[in-house]
Amino acid sequence: MSSPRLPSAAGATLHDAGHDWDAIRVPRSVGLAALAILGPRCGAAIEDPLRSSGVVYYFVPTGTADKWDVENTTALGRGATLAIPPARRTEGPGPHWRICPGDDGWITDPDALAAAITDAFGPRIGEEQEAMRALLEHSQSCEQCVDDHTQCPTGHSLVRAVREARR
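and the corresponding structure tokens:
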């Protein structure tokens, strides 16, 4: 039985997953990176900034939640509900569309989504090692970096590159 479509203060309505679609909940920073990786292959996507540090929801075919196994994400299938914003709400407060549903539907290919999330979460092969090697080489010849890398623009950017490669 479907849940009633009750409006929230932000104008969103609750809809049951597992009927026309399942949904995948991803932490906001990774979800936005995955959205950029997917590009035009991405179906509709909702951002909800009110949940902890924010999340992004992707719509996938019904039944995907039963077999979804991507670390640090949550699959919403039958029995779960999702707040769907009004048709063209593209900014908060509350849930809003990062990508509005189009004529082609709401669905993102689950294999493409899993790959994009994995790429967004994981270190890029070799990038962390290259960034660390560059940082070590620079630090050996930079007196500022010996004391405090934040005082050296090059050292600071190399440390940032190492951190980025690890995310």
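(Above: one complete record from the training split.) The chain has a mean pLDDT of 82.
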